[in-house]
Amino acid sequence: MEHQPTSFSPSVPLSSSSPKPGQSNFRRISRTEDSSPFPIPGLAADILHMRVKEGSKIRNLLRFATARMQGEGRDSKGASLRQVVFSGSGRGVTKTITCVEILKRKMGGLHQVSKLYYKTVNEVWESPQQGAPGITMERTVPAICILLSKDPLDPQEPGYQPPQTLSPSAEDTERRRGLLRTAQSPSSQQTAKRLCLDDYSVCPP
Amino acid sequence: MMEPRNPGMSTVPQTAAAHTDSSTPAVEMDPVEYTLRKRLPRKLPKRRNDVYVNMKTDFRAQLARCQKLLEGGGHREICVHGLGLAINRAINIALQLQASSQGALQLAANTSTVELVDDLEPEDPDEAGEPMTRTRNNSAIHIKVFYPDPQ
């Protein structure tokens, strides 16, 4: 109970007269995050690591990650990646999970391990008064780290999730949608083509 | 009342079907104004040791409830669930529980997608437009907080 969700533990002693940091007259100079190692054991150092921030666009993250996972850059590296790590903290946690969920649905057959941890962020605040000491403080924010892998992972690891098998209802709707599309598209394409041809036959002369 | 409504109802789906074959159904919303009403998430199974975290209840109250379950309630494990914005709070609660147990508790987090249903109700009942529903997805987290078995 001693530390609250975002605990403020100033490492520089505060004089009693100075206002509390976080007020508007204090300015944040720098914000550094600790580069903690992956909380998931046994990961390669050169693994693809997607750092999801609050303002990251999901489509950008996923475009990059799926391209690497599906091996579109085959000529440079030789093979597509087998594993990817997504991590995010604070308000980026929800986005991280959403990214992972979408990627799992898109690719299928991915094993997952999720880990929760506190991330410490060091902030340096500057006081507006000249001569007054600045403040460095350590904040802890909740964070999540998710490993997705095409290869099987240890099922005994806490936070492991096996690949999701498509539920029959979802599969059915997908198939029905596919059928509908295949049933509709040829005719529409043909009409489109015919229209084009007609246009061409009319226009050139 | 029925006469002016019927032609409208028959034209709207036709025009929508004509040019939104493969595009998103959002285009259908244009002609009539709707009020969007969010339904509550589908009721989930609830055991004695399940805690569904929300953003309305005080954080400390929810944390205290979990602690009570683990310490006083005699449960070896509890499940903390969070949906959408409440994911953060669920994680926070789980991490706080772990920190206050001096490492005795372990966490196992699972993520999932929850399908939510929105109701679209026509703003003006005289205009053409029938109540519709739309589904969307939201992310959820399920954290098992447990004392590992002594082995």
Automatic annotation (TrEMBL), chain A:
Matches recorded under InterPro entries: Alba-like_dom_sf, Alba-like_NAB, DNA/RNA-bd_Alba-like
Polar residues compositional bias, start-end: 182-192
Entry keywords, A to Z: Nucleus
Biased composition (Low complexity): 1-21
Region of interest (Disordered), residue spans: 1-37, 152-192
GO molecular function term, any single one: RNA binding
Subcellular location: Nucleus
Positions of the DNA/RNA-binding protein Alba-like domain: 49-119
Example of a GO biological process term: tRNA 5'-leader removal
GO CC terms in record: nucleus; ribonuclease MRP complex
PANTHER family the record matches: RIBONUCLEASE P PROTEIN SUBUNIT P25 (PTHR13516:SF5), RIBONUCLEASE P SUBUNIT P25 (PTHR13516)
The family this protein is said to belong to: Belongs to the histone-like Alba family.
Protein name, as recorded: Ribonuclease P protein subunit p25a
Organism: Stegastes partitus (bicolor damselfish)
TrEMBL record, chain B:
Family (UniProt): Belongs to the histone-like Alba family.
GO CC list: nucleolar ribonuclease P complex; ribonuclease MRP complex
Keyword tRNA processing found: yes
Any one Gene Ontology BP term: rRNA processing
SUBUNIT field: Component of nuclear RNase P and RNase MRP complexes. RNase P consists of a catalytic RNA moiety and 10 different protein chains; POP1, POP4, POP5, POP7, RPP14, RPP21, RPP25, RPP30, RPP38 and RPP40. Within the RNase P complex, POP1, POP7 and RPP25 form the 'finger' subcomplex, POP5, RPP14, RPP40 and homodimeric RPP30 form the 'palm' subcomplex, and RPP21, POP4 and RPP38 form the 'wrist' subcomplex. All subunits of the RNase P complex interact with the catalytic RNA. Several subunits of RNase P are also part of the RNase MRP complex.
Spans annotated as Disordered: 1-26
Organism: Stegastes partitus
Entry superkingdom: Eukaryota
InterPro entries associated with the record: Alba-like_dom_sf (IPR036882), Pop7/Rpp20 (IPR014612)
Protein role: Component of ribonuclease P, a ribonucleoprotein complex that generates mature tRNA molecules by cleaving their 5'-ends. Also a component of the MRP ribonuclease complex, which cleaves pre-rRNA sequences.
Name the UniProt record assigns to this protein: Ribonuclease P protein subunit p20
Record field: transmembrane: none
Compartment(s): Cytoplasmic granule; Nucleus, Nucleolus
Gene name in the database record: pop7
Entry-linked PANTHER family: RIBONUCLEASE P PROTEIN SUBUNIT P20
A molecular-function term among this protein's GO annotations: nucleic acid binding
Main location: cytoplasm
UniProt keyword terms in alphabetical order: Cytoplasm, Nucleus, rRNA processing, tRNA processing
